[in-house]
Design brief:
It is globular and about 65 Å long. The strands form 5 sheets. The protein has a 5-stranded parallel beta sheet with strand order 15-14-13-16-17. Helix 5 (153-163) packs across helix 8 and helix 11 (314-324) runs parallel beside helix 13. It has 15 helices and 17 strands. The chain is α/β, with parallel strands linked by helices. Helices cover 40% and strands 15% of the residues. The protein folds into 3 domains: 57-192, 2-Layer Sandwich (Aconitase, domain 3), CATH 3.30.499; 195-293, no CATH class; 295-407, Aconitase, domain 3. The protein binds FE3-S4 cluster (F3S).
Length: 411
């Protein structure tokens, strides 16, 4: 391939400016050059015309359960030679263990040691070791219209839909390459034309709490990688939108949704001549109830109730604390969140209340990426449709999908 020294050059179908050319040619080292190769290859596949500067990255591919030995070796090799490579604020997705308390919670020893090496390798590269799928709750908060490269599907859905930032659903290696280069390929959800609605759903009933995850699961199956537009009868809470996006992204491949009069780009979603002609689907209470019933795989009680998918906010932890206050919990209870949110829960006294009832706030991990199938659990209670979707398929365990008031049993 012949590269020119002009201001903009063409590589495959993509133009690079002078700085990008230097990165690609290896002037900033081989890891930067290899990362540029990844971004250019992706851009070529999706016919991007250029790269775009990004303001943050969120990197998946962290749990030893998902990346295994090959991933561990790759990251340790990378971090051996190149330290602090990351050029923009970057955060990590959940790992397979509570990094601070894995021994006391009974995470397998060998697994835990390898998991810690993975996170340390990312840390050496400069990625913040805040292992969470809700980076927007801990300071990785893009502004409206910012281009970023995030890879956790639930976070991408929240980012595009609720915050109005712009990201495709990146794979882990692509997000890491973007974190290193500070760029991503300009295609897909970075462009206005991919952000218009492709399907409209009219709710004929008010919804709350668990209904949002259930609705997302149902609609995700129907729209695949489309962009659903919702007309709701009530206003949503932030945590409900977190659940909606997570389940849309798990049963389908949704990266963006709009809610009329709520989300920041719902007007843009209608900026398409086809909008008026899109078929409107009516969603009834019965649709939601039937979908909810079908998500559980057993009628037995949960031996482990696992909340916080996506990772719990301070408000959600407060809700659990208020529910269990002064009582003794019969099942095991994990509330999964980030180290940052737990610090606030500690200060507010919520941790003490939950632990007083026999529950635990678990850091850095969750019911899907932790090796819970090797920890003696059989029936997992979840209030997340995404978790209900994945626990049977990824962990091979039974799942009970319900709200926390029905899942948590007391002595
Ligand atoms: Fe997060 Fe795990 Fe759910 S990574 S979105 S808590 S499956």
């Amino acid at each position: 391939m012949i590269l020119t020294i002009e201001d903009k050059i063409m590589v495959f179908s993509m133009y690079l400016n002078n700085e990008e050319e230097k990165m690609y040619q290896g002037e900033y080292g081989t890891t930067v050059a290899k990362s540029m190769e990844i971004l250019i290859a992706l851009g070529d596949i999706y016919e991007a015309s250029s790269l775009v500067d990004i303001t943050s990255a969120q990197v998946s591919g962290v749990s030893y359960k998902t990346i295994g030995e090959a991933g561990l070796e790759y990251l340790e090799d990378l971090s051996k030679e190149d330290v602090n490579l990351v050029s923009i604020p970057s955060t990590l997705n959940p790992a397979g263990i509570d990094l601070d308390n894995w021994r006391s919670f009974g995470f397998p020893v060998e697994f835990s040691k390898k998991q810690k090496r993975i996170v340390e390798a990312y840390g050496k590269l400069g990625v913040s070791e805040t292992c969470t799928c809700t980076p927007y709750l801990i300071g990785n908060v893009p502004r409206l219209g910012d281009h970023v490269a995030w890879s956790e599907s639930s976070a991408v859905a929240y980012l595009n839909s609720v915050i109005g930032g712009r990201s495709n659903r990146e794979g882990g290696p692509a997000a890491l390459a973007s974190a290193i280069c500070g760029k991503t390929a300009m295609y897909g959800y970075h462009e206005d034309e991919s952000r218009v609605a492709t399907a409209i759903f009219d709710l004929d009933v008010e919804i709350s709490g668990l209904d949002y995850g259930t609705l997302g699961y149902m609609v995700g199956k129907e729209v695949g990688d489309g962009v659903p537009y919702f007309s709701l009868k009530n206003r949503s809470k932030s945590g409900e939108l977190k659940s909606l996006g997570a389940s849309l992204a798990s049963s389908g491949a949704v990266a963006l949704y709009h809610i009329e009069n709520e989300t920041p780009e719902y007007e843009l979603a209608k900026n398409d001549n086809d909008f008026k002609t899109i078929e409107r689907v009516k969603v009834t209470n019965e649709d939601i109830l039937t979908t909810k019933e079908n998500l559980s795989t057993t009628n037995e009680e949960a031996d482990l109730v696992c909340l916080g998918c996506p990772h719990a906010s301070l408000e959600e932890i407060k809700e659990v604390a208020m529910f269990v206050k002064g009582k003794t919990i019969k099942n095991q209870l994990w509330v999964c969140t980030s180290i940052n949110i737990k610090a606030s829960a500690d200060r507010m006294g919520y941790t003490r209340i939950i632990e007083g009832g026999g529950g635990h706030i678990i850091l850095d991990t969750c019911m899907v990426v932790a090796p819970i199938e090797d920890m003696g659990y059989r029936n997992i209670g979840v209030d997340s449709a995404k978790a209900a979707n994945y626990v049977p398929s990824i962990c091979g365990l039974n799942v009970i999908y319900d709200n926390l008031e029905n899942l948590i049993k007391f002595k």
